[in-house]
Amino acid sequence: MKKITLLIIALTTFSCTQAQKTEFSKKALSETLLSTDGNQVKFKDILKKQKGKTTIIEFWASWCGDCVKAMPKLKELQANNPSVSYVFMSMDKTADKWKAGIDKHQLDGLHYMANDGMKGVFGTAVDLDWIPRYIIIDKTGKIVVYRAIETDFEKINDTLKKLESI
């Protein structure tokens, strides 16, 4: 009986940490990110500009091997879903490396960089524990998929197709 109780507690704990969120925390919304023109922009203002558009937010970094490995799949996703807006959130440590990564990988979309890296205030506020990480937001601004990684492209594509038909 003890083993069953421990298993239930473990499963409950794990499922709660992986919970699907439908909106960002106030802390995340109030955080600022660096734009490519050198200005600081609040995350909530970035999201406001996406209202009315299906949006994928990708958290990535130029130093991240898994991020670079996923780029061809991301480009395929963009080609197959041209009406989707793409927002890239870099976790690079310097703006120079971030901008070089954008150029090197020819990333088409809007670009911002966290001011304090992956484990900083913004990364913590969006539960960032792995990159690349993808969040899908529908046209109303609701989070549809809160946690997808580079192995979830089929799930991401299926979700985008469903949102397109709505």
Automatic annotation (TrEMBL):
InterPro entries assigned to the protein according to its UniProt record, in alphabetical order: Thioredoxin-like_fold (IPR012336), Thioredoxin-like_sf (IPR036249), Thioredoxin_domain (IPR013766), Thioredoxin_ResA/DsbE_sf (IPR050553)
Pfam family, one: Thioredoxin_8
GO CC entries: cell envelope
SUPFAM superfamilies named among the record's database cross-references: Thioredoxin-like
Compartments it resides in: Cell envelope
Keyword terms, alphabetized: Cytochrome c-type biogenesis, Disulfide bond, Redox-active center
Domain Thioredoxin intervals: 22-165
Lineage: superkingdom: Bacteria
PROSITE patterns attached to this UniProt entry: PROKAR_LIPOPROTEIN, THIOREDOXIN_2
GO annotation (BP), single: cytochrome complex assembly
Keyword Methyltransferase annotated: no
Protein name: Alkyl hydroperoxide reductase
